[in-house]
């Protein structure tokens, strides 16, 4: 199976490379990046051909599968190229800065039957995987609380991705980076649209154009609530990463500074403790390859990304206006 990595100007690329090296029968055939020096550097590290254009790579290499990256503001152009060619792929989030731009690709993907996944890795393991596996036992979700406070912005510069600090290139800060995972988990748990969003952001700590702290409140028509906080606040590891869920049949919480295994305290007196296990990119990459080979759909599809991005767009609009905002609905 010949795999290509497209637009490798992203801090997660190294984790994908390490993971792919451990998957039987997979060869990293080529890499691309609009800034050719970045592609050449990765090509030398991986031992494969480097291209300055994703289109040229696809024309010449004809890979079986693509893992796609890119700075956020260039992601949609790349996603559209892959859909135009019906090239099977998995892409990093958020795939676009605007849900309205991304939404039309969903129907084309579904009509073609092509494999098109998005890297919501928290569905794989840790508390996210545990919550989704136990979903049937929880009953109605009343409240979801998530808090992810990561390290300083300097780490993105050190990883060669200074675009993360520029709002026009990243689309935002910690919310579009970290908060998307929580929004996705909330939507997967409640299984209904978010109809109201309120958000406040701050960049007081680092003074960059992107926020380093975001507090987001989501509500559904049935009354399910989410309170989500993300930030670039801690000076170094360990990060803060906690959740709490109040549901009809259980209360769920985790402790720790990683993706701690949650405890399910059921209202009938039972307690279920999941082991602590970080959702690993090796698990995600291996799952993508397995599903593609088996003809199965991805663990997270582009339609899910549209739903999450609609909430992100509404949250930033709310932060700017100071008023609650209704996310635009792209699916009926």
What would your notes on this structure say?
This protein has 332 residues and is an alpha/beta fold. It has two domains: 2-121 and 283-300, NAD(P)-binding Rossmann-like Domain (Rossmann fold); 123-277 and 310-321, Dihydrodipicolinate Reductase, domain 2 (2-Layer Sandwich), CATH 3.30.360. The chain has 13 helices and 14 strands. The protein has helices at residues 13-21, 36-46, 54-61, 72-84, 99-102, 104-112, 126-133, 135-138, 154-158, 167-170, 174-190, 281-294, 302-321; strands at 2-6, 27-32, 49-51, 65-68, 89-91, 116-118, 141-150, 194-202, 213-220, 225-232, 240-247, 250-253, 263-266, 271-273. The chain has an eight-stranded mixed β-sheet with strand order 8-9-10-7-11-12-13-14. It has a six-stranded parallel β-sheet with strand order 3-2-1-4-5-6, with helices on both faces. Helix 1 (13-21) packs across helix 12 (281-294) and helix 11 packs across helix 13. The longest helix has 20 residues, at 302-321. The chain is globular, with a radius of gyration of 19 Å. The protein starts with a strand and ends in an 11-residue tail after the last helix. 47% of the residues are buried.
List the keywords.
2 domains, six-stranded parallel beta sheet, eight-stranded mixed beta sheet, alpha/beta, 13 helices, Rossmann fold, globular, 332 residues, Dihydrodipicolinate Reductase, domain 2
């Amino acid at each position: 199976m010949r795999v290509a990595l497209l637009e490798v100007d992203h801090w997660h690329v190294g984790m994908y490379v390490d993971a792919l090296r451990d998957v039987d029968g997979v060869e990293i055939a080529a890499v691309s990046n609009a800034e050719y020096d970045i592609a050449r550097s990765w090509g030398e590290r991986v031992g494969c051909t480097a291209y300055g254009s994703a289109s040229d790579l696809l024309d010449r290499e004809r890979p079986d599968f693509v893992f796609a990256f890119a700075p956020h503001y260039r992601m949609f152009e790349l996603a559209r190229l892959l859909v135009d060619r019906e090239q099977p792929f998995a892409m990093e989030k958020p795939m676009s800065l605007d849900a309205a731009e991304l939404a039309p690709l969903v129907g084309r993907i579904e009509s073609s039957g092509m494999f098109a996944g998005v890297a919501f890795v928290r569905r794989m393991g840790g508390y996210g995987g545990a919550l989704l596996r136990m979903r049937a036992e929880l009953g109605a979700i009343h409240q979801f609380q998530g808090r992810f406070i990561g390290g300083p912005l300097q780490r993105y510069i050190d990883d060669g991705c200074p675009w993360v600090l520029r709002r026009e290139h990243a689309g935002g800060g910690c919310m579009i980076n970290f908060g998307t995972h929580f929004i996705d988990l909330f939507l997967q748990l409640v299984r209904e649209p978010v109809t109201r969003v309120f958000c406040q952001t701050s960049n007081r700590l680092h003074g960059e154009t992107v926020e380093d702290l975001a507090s987001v409140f989501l509500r559904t028509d049935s009354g399910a609530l989410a309170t989500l906080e993300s930030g670039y606040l801690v000076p170094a590891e360990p990060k803060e990463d906690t959740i709490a869920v109040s549901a009809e049949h259980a209360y769920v919480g985790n402790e720790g500074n990683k993706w701690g295994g949650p405890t399910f305290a059921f209202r009938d007196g039972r307690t279920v403790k999941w082991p602590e296990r970080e959702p690993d990119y090796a698990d995600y990459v291996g799952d993508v390859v397995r599903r593609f080979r088996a003809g199965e759909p991805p663990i997270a599809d582009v339609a899910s990304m549209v739903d999450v991005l609609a909430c992100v767009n509404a949250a930033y609009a709310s932060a700017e206006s100071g008023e609650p905002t209704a996310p635009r609905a792209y699916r009926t």
